[in-house]
Amino acid sequence: MLSSIGPQHSAPKSHSKFSSGPERRTHPLVWCAAIICTILTLAVIIAGIVTFIGYLVIHPRVPYISVTNAHLDRIQIDYAGVLEIQVTVVIRAQNGNEKAHASFSDSGYTLSLNGEDVAQLVAPPFEVSKNSSVDFNYVVQSSPIPLGPEIAEDVEIALKRDLITFDLKGSARVRWRVGRLGSVRFLCRLNCQLHFHPLNGTYIPSSCTSKAK
Q1: For labeling, which of 19, 82, 168, 185 is most exposed (least CB within 10 Å)?
Q2: Farthest CA pair distance, the chain
Q3: Mean of the per-residue pLDDT values for the chain?
Q4: How far is it, in rounded angstroms, from Cα 93 to Cα 87?
Q5: Which of 148, 123, 125 is nearest to 136 (CA)?
Q6: pTM here?
Q7: Collapsed DSSP state (helix, strand, coil) of residue 95
Q8: What 8-state DSSP symbol labels residue 23?
Q9: How far apart are CA 132 and CA 92, in angstroms?
Q10: Is 118 exposed, middle or buried (0-12, 13-18, 19+ CB in 10 A)?
């Protein structure tokens, strides 16, 4: 059998649509920035882990202040509306940390009646040992306070009802050390009312504390 062989045509070479130019190299500054960012990210993660573990081990507690007792020693208002009082307030500074002392400073509180300031309660800086407390027995006597007619009338009504209410506002700064994690600072605030029976001066207990509820 004879076979005829025709002319052979080679397939045309395909050309790539994309031509590759000279390869670009990443600038060294970009690599340095990427390495620094990576190191900082790892440092933040490690610091967070260490802080969390330290919190679980030490279990720090925020110190707080609270009113534990009080007594209205004397209250008197004359016909001219001049008020005189003497009151005892016991404020406790509590440190529930088992491994850290607490330092209190800038302790100051204002006792007021119907918006009229009647006494200032202050204390010098002091320390509270670990897992301990310190009580401050404030005995304050006001100087004669002239009241306006409306406030004087409100006070007289309260005396007749045998129920009078004082406002107590103030704060103390506290600092304590949380192991090797460093020092922590916090502002303890008091903002509450103190209720008394004027006839015998007894204090009606109520919640008055800076402790978070």
Answers
A1: 19
A2: 147
A3: 83
A4: 19
A5: 123
A6: 0.70
A7: strand
A8: P
A9: 10
A10: buried
